[in-house]
Amino acid sequence: MLRLIKNDSQHEDTLARIYKLMQLDLQPDTEESDELEILSMLVKKYEDEHYPIPEPTPVEAIKYRMEQMNLTDAELSEILGARSRKSEILSGKRKLSLTMIRALKERLNISADILIQLY
């Protein structure tokens, strides 16, 4: 029986059931595949409420994307306009300008919502 997850014990039980369902070779539009989808939504709701993950700072997002994309410091400097700017931004001494935010959004595909945050 499907129910809302209200505590950590129910959360663990639901995760165990999800794991069991994931071990099966489920076909779409079956009772088990629907159950897996619903349980996943319930877990997401519970985890979003009880274990929220904060948005990264602009600097954390830039560093993460650099690592993901294997970008060099020189490539980031090119995006930001100057080597000294890159250093100042990554150290937190300088804030991003609107031009830099636009370039980072375009070239690194970082959400503008993250880049415009105060940090």
UniProtKB/TrEMBL annotation:
<dbReference type="InterPro" id="IPR001387">
    <property type="entry name" value="Cro/C1-type_HTH"/>
</dbReference>
<feature type="domain" description="HTH cro/C1-type">
    <location>
        <begin position="62"/>
        <end position="115"/>
    </location>
</feature>
<dbReference type="InterPro" id="IPR039060">
    <property type="entry name" value="Antitox_HigA"/>
</dbReference>
<dbReference type="Pfam" id="PF01381">
    <property type="entry name" value="HTH_3"/>
</dbReference>
<protein>
    <submittedName>
        <fullName>XRE family transcriptional regulator</fullName>
    </submittedName>
</protein>
<dbReference type="GO" id="GO:0006355">
    <property type="term" value="P:regulation of DNA-templated transcription"/>
</dbReference>
<dbReference type="GO" id="GO:0001046">
    <property type="term" value="F:core promoter sequence-specific DNA binding"/>
</dbReference>
<dbReference type="InterPro" id="IPR010982">
    <property type="entry name" value="Lambda_DNA-bd_dom_sf"/>
</dbReference>
